[in-house]
Amino acid sequence: MSSVRSPVTIGLIVLVVVLLGAVGYLAAYPPTRVVTTTVTAPGGAAQVTTVTQVLTTTVTQAAPQPQMIECRLGFAMAVSGPYAVDGPVRRDGGILAIEHINKYLESIGAPIRFRYVHDDTKGTAADALKVVQSMYAAGIRVIIGPFASGEVRGVMDFANSNKIIIISPSSTSPLLAAPDYIFRAPPTDLFQAKVLAQLMNSMGIKKVAAIVRGDDYGRGLLEAFRKEFTTQYGGILREIVYTVGQPDYASEVARLSSYVKELGADASTAVLIIAFEDDGLNIIGHARLDPVLSSVRWFGSETLNRPAAYTPPPTGKATKEIADFLAKVGLTGVFASPRGSPLAEMFEKEYRSRFGRDPSPYAYFTYDAVWLAAMAILFAGGKCYDADAVKNALPIVAERFIGVTGWKALDENGDARGSDYTIWQYRIVGGNYTFAPIGVWRYPAGVVELYK
């Protein structure tokens, strides 16, 4: 692993491993024996003298060989369905974390290693529940994933009833916030909504037509955005909430076009799209052919920031026509991931070296989620399969942990307390289509800073 590490991470792991090191304790004990000898004086005198001798013998106890502990972490992560493109990229961030953690533990002689057990949740609540139930039956009590808020909704009752720790790297719906066994590495979308509304207002956007997937993620983000945009900034909002899983969204795009035309289709009007991969590509594929939708600015949720989905080959699966449209309308969004820190740069470099591609934004959170799980287990004395011990340790560890996505302190519901947000825009840079950083929103100051 790179020599660039968080001092907090190193200090905590060393502390816990020292505690675990009692397994290999070697000590020398100097016991004493008391020997009493009775001496009778010459001549048969009646006086008897008792002499006590202290004989010290050094006994060396051989060091027992510490037994290696294996901790299994569940990876309930979709790599098919709506996550066929970005899911493997996110999962690999977790694999890299396992490798880094084990390499570090080996380097300091710690008698514990972590092993991941992966199963595909397929991006659905029903399949996510099957995976979590299977991992529970196998004895696993700490699971990284699922990715989507809808999937988390599908497993949360089972996890809470059976005491299973769930740490999602990418669920952000405010509708799921509760003090339970569900933890989430990113902040909820109350932050994303706040930043999006503030950013749009600063760019002169007063009217928005939103097209939103009808699941926990889409509805939660839309509800939070509506409150911010209409109440805080007096904006006008038109909404289309579509059913997830349809083969085509042409009719919804036609409605979207009529809403934009009704709002005026001028410089103060914009489209907000909250979509995943296949649904988003279908919607944008229709929208690029519509002159009204092509004439206004577009903003997107952080789920649009997926290079493997929204850039053209060889980096992604979008057509060049879709890429040109996204660049033309200046698709802009925000993401809870600080850029430019030494830890993030280390992660990016080692991810590319290991997997031969760039990490997508949520791969960073998967990496940190695995570290949080491992450190909580270590802090709990290596109790890999004691959910309550890990649950109690997680807030303590997170409060003192700085990962590649920044400070991971948790709120009262077990979700990341806050974060800076990168402001990105879809652009052509050096002939390549990319999600270029154009600014930052500072937490907790709440200030938008656009780069010049």
Task: Kindly describe this structure.
The structure is a single chain. With 452 residues, the chain is α/β, with parallel strands linked by helices. Helices cover 39% and strands 23% of the residues. The chain has helices spanning 7-20, 86-107, 125-137, 149-162, 189-202, 216-232, 250-263, 278-287, 307-310, 320-328, 342-355, 361-379, 387-399, and strands at residues 28-29, 32-40, 48-56, 59-60, 69-76, 112-119, 142-144, 165-168, 182-184, 207-213, 236-242, 269-274, 297-300, 332-335, 402-403, 406-407, 421-429, 432-442, 447-450. Strands 6-5-7-8-9 form a five-stranded parallel sheet, sandwiched between helices. A four-stranded parallel sheet has the order 11-10-12-13, sandwiched between helices. It has a four-stranded antiparallel sheet with strand order 14-17-18-19. The chain is globular. The model is unreliable at 1-42 and 45-59 (pLDDT under 50).
| Class computed from helices, strands and strand pairing | alpha/beta
- List unreliable stretches of 5+ residues: 1-42, 45-59
Rg of Cα set: 29 Å
Question: Could you give me the name of the CATH homologous superfamily of the largest domain?
Answer: Response regulator
Whole-number tally of structural domains:
3
Quote the average pLDDT: 88
Strand segment tally: 19
Strand content: 15-25%
Per the CATH scheme, the topology name of the largest domain is Rossmann fold
Q: Which term fits the overall shape?
A: globular
CATH class of the largest domain: Alpha Beta
Main beta sheet: 5 strands, parallel
- Distance between the first and last residues' Cα: 36 Å
Question: What count of helical segments does DSSP give?
Answer: 13
